[in-house]
Structure formats: structure tokens, C-alpha cells
Write a structure and sequence with these properties.
310 residues, Helix Hairpins, Heat Shock Protein 90, 5-stranded mixed beta sheet, two-stranded antiparallel ribbon, 7 helices, 7 strands, elongated
Length: 310
């Protein structure tokens, strides 16, 4: 090339090689820093997962600043976990205290009212008052027991033991305390459940949830009505349906029936506090299932539990 000396070309070539070499070296060093940073982050996260103390050796680079911020984030989360655990322990202790401090006085009230009721020559008015005291005490005892169960579930004090088992025994257990009430109202109960129909569930607590659904069915079904329990499974869920011929649920109430203390405007003349379905929904959802409801006023209701197969 005319106008360029060989020496100048060599100098330009050497400069280009130097630039490329410097860039490659810088890129290599940057890659090492990034790799080191990722290794450090990986180790920090791994140590955080296993609850080990964190390493705190940092230099003054920008990547080390990010490492330091990550460490602070992990430490704050760990502190929050400890605080939550402490609060959870306090809640557990409080629930236990409430359970103990309320059950004993209520049991005494029930006992004394029953003893007084056995006294001869009581006036009809006095006997009626004693019956009301006993009935309201039992209602209060049931409310406190339900709230304590709910609090224990929500605070994690109770761990459900779910396993795949037939649902027929669970249904039978739920019904065992309701046959007398249903019989007193001449309500017919039909069960359609194959012996091998199974689902993954906790036997005791699922029986409790199903009892709450069935208790509502008995309560809101008029004398001479019927209740049908159907259980069947598919590849994903086992469905347990409780269908009754009761008073039904207004359309505007269907979306609220699983809320705490909710009672429909057509349920005023029936005893209840509106916590049974809320507790049932909580028990089933903890196990990975859910409950649906469909109804029309005057035509009965269908409440369906879906429990996972696996």
C-alpha cells in the first residue's frame, strides 16, 4: 500500500493485537468475577436453605456489594422466620390457655344445671329456665370447641395425616352422630358409595368436615325429607356429594356460605352460628381439595367435597 511504511503497518498491527488481547483478558477476568459471584450466591442460598451460618468475606467490588445485599436479605428473612416462630408459639400457648380456662367453667355450669334440674317440686318456669341454661351452655361449648379447632388448624398446631383410604368408613363415621336427629325428623338417608371408592384424606378431620355438611343437611331439611350421599372417583379427584330436600340457599348467599359466621337470611329460625361450613372448607383445602355448593330456595341443596386421589 502506497504511502504507508512497513514499520507503521507493523505498529498498527501490534496495536490491534494488543487491543484484542486486552479485551480478551478483561473478558476473561469479568467472566471469572461473574462465575465467582454466582458460585458465592449459590453457596449463600444453599447455606440459607440448610440453616447454616453465612460467610462474610467481601472485597470492595460492585459484585461484592450485591453479595452483601443478598446476605442482608437472607439475614432479615431469617430474623423474620424466628419472629414468626416465636409468635406462633405464643398463639399456641394462648389457644391452650383459652381451651383450658373456658372448658372447665362451662362443664361446671352444665353439671350444676343438671343437678338442680333433678331437684323435686321445681316450678315449670324454673325447670324451663334450667333447660335454657343447659341448651345455651352446650351451644357456647360447641362454639368454643369449634373456634379452638379452627385456630389450631390455622396456626399449624394440628398436622393432618392424609393417606389413600376408602371413603365409606369416613362417611359412616360422620353419620354416626346424626342418625338419631335424622330419625326424630323422619328424614331418610341414602348412601351410594362403592366399598373400594378411595381418596387421599385424613380420616378423623375429613369425617369432621363431612359431619358439618351432613349436620346442616339434617338441620335445614323439613320432617319427612331425605338426604342422599354419593361418592365416586375419577383419575384426579374423589367426589362426595351431600344432596338434601331442605329449604335451599338463596342465590345471593351461595358465594358467602363458606365465610366465617355467615348465615343466610332464610336460616334465622334455625339454631346455628355459621362456622361449620367455614371449618369444613378449611379442613378440605388443607388436604388439597375443595367444596362446591349449588342450590335453589325450596328445592334443597347440593354440597360436594372433592378430595385428591394422589
Amino acid at each position: 500500500m502506497e504511502g504507508f511504511s512497513p514499520a507503521l503497518l507493523q505498529l498498527a498491527l501490534l496495536f490491534l493485537i494488543a487491543v484484542i488481547g486486552t479485551g480478551a483478558l478483561y473478558n476473561h477476568m469479568l467472566q471469572r468475577q461473574i462465575t465467582g459471584f454466582m458460585d458465592t450466591v449459590d453457596e449463600m442460598v444453599d447455606r440459607a436453605i440448610h440453616g447454616h451460618e453465612q460467610l462474610t468475606l467481601f472485597d470492595e467490588t460492585r459484585l461484592s456489594s450485591l453479595e452483601h445485599k443478598l446476605l442482608r436479605y437472607i439475614e432479615i428473612n431469617k430474623s423474620n422466620e424466628h419472629n414468626l416462630a416465636a409468635e406462633k408459639d405464643k398463639i399456641k400457648e394462648l389457644i391452650s390457655d383459652i381451651s383450658h380456662q373456658t372448658k372447665t367453667p362451662l362443664a361446671s355450669i352444665l353439671l350444676y344445671s343438671q343437678l338442680v334440674a333433678e331437684t323435686p317440686d321445681l316450678s315449670p318456669d324454673t325447670r324451663q329456665l334450667l333447660q335454657q341454661i343447659e341448651a345455651q351452655s352446650e351451644k357456647l361449648e360447641w362454639l368454643i370447641t369449634s373456634l379452638i379447632k379452627l385456630s389450631r388448624l390455622e396456626s399449624g398446631m394440628i398436622q393432618l395425616q392424609s393417606e389413600v383410604r376408602p371413603v365409606a368408613a369416613t362417611i359412616t363415621s360422620a353419620l354416626s352422630h346424626l342418625y338419631t336427629r335424622a330419625g326424630n325428623k323422619n328424614i331418610i338417608i341414602n348412601i351410594d358409595c362403592a366399598p373400594l371408592t378411595a381418596a387421599r384424606h385424613d380420616y378423623k378431620w375429613t369425617s369432621e368436615a363431612l359431619f358439618n355438611l351432613l349436620e346442616n343437611a339434617v338441620k335445614y331439611t323439613e320432617p319427612g325429607g331425605s338426604i342422599r350421599i354419593t361418592a365416586e372417583g375419577n383419575e384426579m379427584f374423589t367426589r362426595i356429594e351431600v344432596a338434601d330436600t331442605g329449604i335451599g340457599i338463596p342465590e345471593d348467599g351461595l358465594e358467602h356460605i363458606f365465610k366465617r359466621f355467615y348465615r343466610g337470611h332464610n336460616a334465622g329460625e334455625y339454631e346455628g352460628i355459621g362456622i361449620g361450613l367455614f371449618l369444613a372448607q378449611k379442613i378440605i383445602s388443607i388436604q388439597g381439595g375443595y367444596i362446591t355448593a349449588s342450590s335453589q330456595p325450596g328445592q334443597g341443596s347440593r354440597l360436594t367435597i372433592y378430595l385428591p386421589q394422589l
